[in-house]
Amino acid sequence: MNRPGARLLRGALNQASLILFALVFAGFGSLSAKFLSPANLLNILLQSAPTVIVAVGMTFVLLTGGVDLSVGAVMFVGAALAGKAAPGGAGPAAAVGLMLAAGALLGLGNGFLVARLKVIPFVVTLAVMSIGRGFGLWLTETRALNLSNEFLQVGAARVLGVPVPVLLAGAVLVAATVVLGATPFGRQLYAVGQNAAAARRAGVNTRRILLIAYVLSGVCAGLGGFLSLAQLGAVSSKFGENYEFKAIAAAVLGGASLQGGRGRIFPGALLGATLIQAVENGLVILNADPYLYPLVTSAVIFLAVLVDATRTSLLAESHRRQIRVEP
Question: Is residue 1 part of a domain?
Answer without folding.
Answer: no
